[in-house]
Amino acid sequence: MIAKQREKPDELIAYELLSKRKQLSEQEKRRYRSLAKGFEGEVMFDTYLDKLAGEHIILKDLLIHHNKYCQIDSILLKNGKIYLFEIKNFIGEYYWDDDNLFMLNQVEIDNPLVQRDRAHSILRRLLQSLDIRLPLVSYLIFVNPECSIFQAPLDKQIILPTQMNRFIKQFPITANITSQEKEASEKLAANHIEHYPFNQFPSYQYDQLEKGIPCYQCGEMATYPQKQGIECRLCGNLEKGSEVIMRICSEYQFLFPERKITSTSIYNWSDGMISRRRIFRILQQYYEKKGEHRCHYFE
Ligand SMILES: [Zn+2]
């Protein structure tokens, strides 16, 4: 049972959208790559947890606060225990030396054990304050099979890519969810914080962004209008007009929540690729006129 789903972080969505419409700086590219890699690793780990036998509860991507904020990649409640997983999507070769992690070229990197132990300690204190008495066990998971880690300490609860399948299989298959686990998962889910107050977000302005319609399939700004919708010059993908309009409306709304959605604003955003009248018809059909609803448009 999944008590809390994973969602793509807003910052990552913003970079995905912006990278199609502007040249990202080197710093932005690094941040984008790191967010994308982190998210891919977490999703990869989800596919392992999908294979877990027996009953259990999973909470993905939990943001908690107990004196400090802490993002927890995955929590599993199973067999009377709470498991915390700190997931790393490293690619390449690394080695441990005296509890520090280095790349093969001897560059030391941020110690993921420190991150895991910080998460463990914040979660442990939160569990105490919520009167949850299940034991907490934390693991550091290197999930990507294209990663080799040498000299990993054996006593630090580190799971390497080659150990993943065996690690998942060692959980007993007969487990049932207990009321204590259920109650604990409900309390944890209720303590999830929706928005990290210090979230980083890329900065951009409307005028900096290229107008037009990125291809749904390959993401390139290489589309041109066709009778039924828009077609991509590069990959040949054809997308239906109504779907294109809905897609660029939600993109526009995400990037510029303070701007009004009108047939003219979306017409300009698409660089005139779809007629105002067609945009208006779709807005009429799928969006509420200005009113109570979040997705509204203006004439
Ligand atoms: Zn394309």
Describe this structure in words.
- This protein is α/β, with parallel strands linked by helices.
- It has two domains: 2-190, Trna Endonuclease, Chain: A, domain 1, CATH 3.40.1350.10; 211-297, no CATH class.
- The protein is built from eight helices and 14 strands.
- The protein has helices at 10-21, 26-49, 112-129, 164-169, 179-190, 241-255, 263-269, 276-286; strands at 2-4, 57-66, 68-78, 81-88, 92-97, 100-103, 136-142, 147-150, 158-159, 223-225, 229-232, 238-240, 288-289, 296-297.
- The strands form four sheets. The protein has a six-stranded mixed β-sheet with strand order 1-2-3-4-7-9, sandwiched between helices.
- Strand 3 (68-78) and strand 4 (81-88) form a beta hairpin.
- The model has no long low-confidence stretch (mean pLDDT 93).
- Bound molecules: zinc ion (ZN).
- Residues 215, 217-218, 220, 232, 234-235, 237 line the site of zinc ion.
- The site of zinc ion has 8 residues, from loops.
